[in-house]
Specification:
The termini are far apart. It contains two helices and eleven strands. It is mainly beta. It has a single domain, classed as Lipocalin (Beta Barrel).
Length: 217
């Protein structure tokens, strides 16, 4: 059961730093225009954070990937990021050695058919469908958030459109995007074992993602 915690999120609805997302059906990808920026994998991070309900046994780590973004007249307009789930890593500090398991054991468990089934679904893909200015007065827990980004998030063969606040800075030769938000694993049909199974019920439905992306011309 301690491994099942890896699909749960921190602090759920009471999280003070992560934003909630709004969800909808799959939308058309935004058209590329303006300048293209390639995501610098070595300088970009995607962190995940998960726990049992009630905050027990926190699990956290990283995943990496590749992608491109485009900006027109100083504004982010489109892009795509492909996370390679084979790169999923659990921070060793997230696993208590007294539990008799290592972080690599959790990595293997998450990549198995119990969760992401990486052998059949090696990638998680996010494709931008819309970028808007964050309206004045809109509540955002991310400091400095200035945009509202929408995109199709495809996980294990299921696609859901998500919208979240982000901080986007566009310069002549680089583009930075930061966001911290919570998704509900059930929106992608991510269940441990079967729907209604006590092992699945014991896992929080929320998953926190922390994005810090640097892209360069």
């Amino acid at each position: 059961m301690m491994f099942a915690a890896a699909l749960a999120a921190t602090a759920c609805k009471d999280n003070k730093t992560a934003d909630s997302v709004s969800t909808g059906t799959e939308q058309s990808a935004a058209a590329h225009s303006g300048d293209a920026y390639t995501i610098d994998q070595s300088a970009s991070t995607i962190k995940w954070h998960a726990t049992h309900k009630g905050g027990l046994n926190p699990r956290y780590g990283t995943v990496s990937g590749t992608g491109t973004l485009s900006a027109d007249n100083g504004n982010l307009v489109s892009g795509e990021y492909t996370a390679d789930m084979n790169t999923l890593l659990t921070d060793p500090a997230a696993v208590n050695p007294n539990e008799g398991k290592k972080s690599t054991d959790l990595d293997e468990h998450l990549k198995s058919e119990d969760f992401f089934d990486v052998a059949s679904h090696p990638n998680v893909v996010f494709t931008i469908t819309k970028v808007e200015d964050l309206a004045a007065g809109t509540e955002a827990r991310l400091e400095g958030a200035n945009k509202l980004v929408s995109g199709n998030l495809s996980i294990k063969g299921q696609t859901v459109n998500v919208t979240f606040p982000a901080k986007v800075d566009v310069a002549e030769n680089e583009l930075r995007l930061a966001s911290k938000f919570i998704i509900n694993r059930k929106d992608w049909g991510l269940n441990y074992k079967t729907e209604g199974n006590p092992a699945d019920w014991a896992i929080s439905q929320d998953v926190e993602l922390d994005l810090n992306i640097l892209a360069k011309k």
